[in-house]
Amino acid sequence: MIADTTMKCACKSCDCVVSIADAIKKNDKYYCCQACADGHVDGKGCGHQGCICG
Fold first, then answer.
1. What is the pTM of this model?
2. What is the pLDDT of residues 16-37, one digit of tens each?
3. Domain limits, the chain
4. Any bridge partners for residue 24, and if so which?
5. What is the fold of 1-53?
């Protein structure tokens, strides 16, 4: 069986799909960027095209 290598960013408002190998892991969850991993404390979104999280 081949393991999945991508998953949706753990940020609830983020639409990004992230490679597990490249993701930021925090509290056993995978995020597309530091802003998502930190819960958007600075108010900035991830900045990825088409995503409006933040």
1. 0.85
2. 999 999 999 999 999 999 999 9
3. 1-53
4. 31
5. Ribosomal Protein L24e; Chain: T; (2.30.170)
